[in-house]
Amino acid sequence: MKLAIIQFEPEFGDVLQTIEKLKLLLKKAKKADLIVLPELANTGYNFDSREQAFDLSETINESVFLRFLKDVCRDYKFSVATGFSEKEGEKLYNSSVLVDETGVKSVYRKLHLFMNEKNIFEPGNIDLSVIDHKGIKLGMLVCFDWMFPEAWRKLALQGAELILHPSNLVLPYAQSVIPSYSLVNRVFIATANRIGTEKELTFTGQSIITGTKGEVMATAGLSEEILMVEIDPKKAEDKMITPLNDAFKDRRTDIYE
């Protein structure tokens, strides 16, 4: 399958302008089977207040942004995972949403909130889970979830072959850690970061796709960019590190849980 990341700068607070940007970028990536967009791609990131975030956010079922992605998926016959500022009742979630030509297929809500996100979003309330999407076992995480190895391992133990990771990274650490998470879990990872500056925050770009042996399959710079690689997700079923060492079966669960 062809896996792609679109690294770009959403237009803060202007979903229609962001859609116009994505029309061109998604067309350029139309040969992909699955595309990953950054965190909070529908709104931008650095809100002045919870009230501002609430006003800019959408519900899953009534979203101009997700409806646009569904239509594009139908036209180009791919699927898209995107970061999404999700409104549910009076609550806000920093979510990742998987969309195909039929609509929303899966929703994940960020478990580990970073810095001022704690003043805006509710902690995720959906368990980490793997779905079978078009024959591929997918898991999703969002940005600062990268800091917690338990999240990656739980998805891998459930059989994830590919973990999609929409991000708005401002710290300089995550991109260097992602290959290690691929290696120790023997999974593919697509970390889709954004670029640009919002007030005092500058985003670090350098989106990355890694393979099951920790190899860097593609990495971006600091500008708008599309990464695309061919992967065989079934390689993630092989957990052997040596002929006598299985990365999962060799775990000493009698000593640690």
Word description of this protein:
The chain is of the alpha/beta class and 257 residues long. Helices cover 21% and strands 30% of the residues. The protein has helices at residues 15-28, 50-56, 64-76, 149-157, 174-185; strands spanning 2-7, 34-36, 79-88, 91-100, 103-109, 131-133, 136-140, 162-166, 188-192, 197-198, 201-202, 208-210, 216-219, 225-230, 240-242, 245-246. Strand 8 (162-166), helix 5 (174-185) and strand 9 (188-192) form a beta-alpha-beta unit. Helix 1 packs parallel to helix 3 (64-76).
Mean pLDDT: 97
Strand portion: 25-35%
Shape: globular
Span between termini: 34 Å
As a percent range, the share of helical residues equals: 10-25%
Largest sheet: 6 strands, mixed
Counted by DSSP, the helix tally is 5
What's the SSE pattern?
EHEHHEEEEEHEHEEEEEEEE
Low-confidence parts: none
| Spatial order of strands in the largest sheet | 5-4-3-2-1-14
- How many beta-strand elements? 16
SSE blueprint and pairings:
Layout: E1 2-7, H1 15-28, E2 34-36, H2 50-56, H3 64-76, E3 79-88, E4 91-100, E5 103-109, E6 131-133, E7 136-140, H4 149-157, E8 162-166, H5 174-185, E9 188-192, E10 197-198, E11 201-202, E12 208-210, E13 216-219, E14 225-230, E15 240-242, E16 245-246
Parallel strand pairs: 1-2, 2-3, 7-8, 8-9
Antiparallel strand pairs: 1-14, 3-4, 4-5, 6-7, 9-12, 10-11, 12-13, 15-16
Helix pairs in contact: 1-3
Write a brief structural summary.
The chain has helices at residues 15-28, 50-56, 64-76, 149-157, 174-185, and strands at residues 2-7, 34-36, 79-88, 91-100, 103-109, 131-133, 136-140, 162-166, 188-192, 197-198, 201-202, 208-210, 216-219, 225-230, 240-242, 245-246. With 257 residues, the protein is an alpha/beta fold.
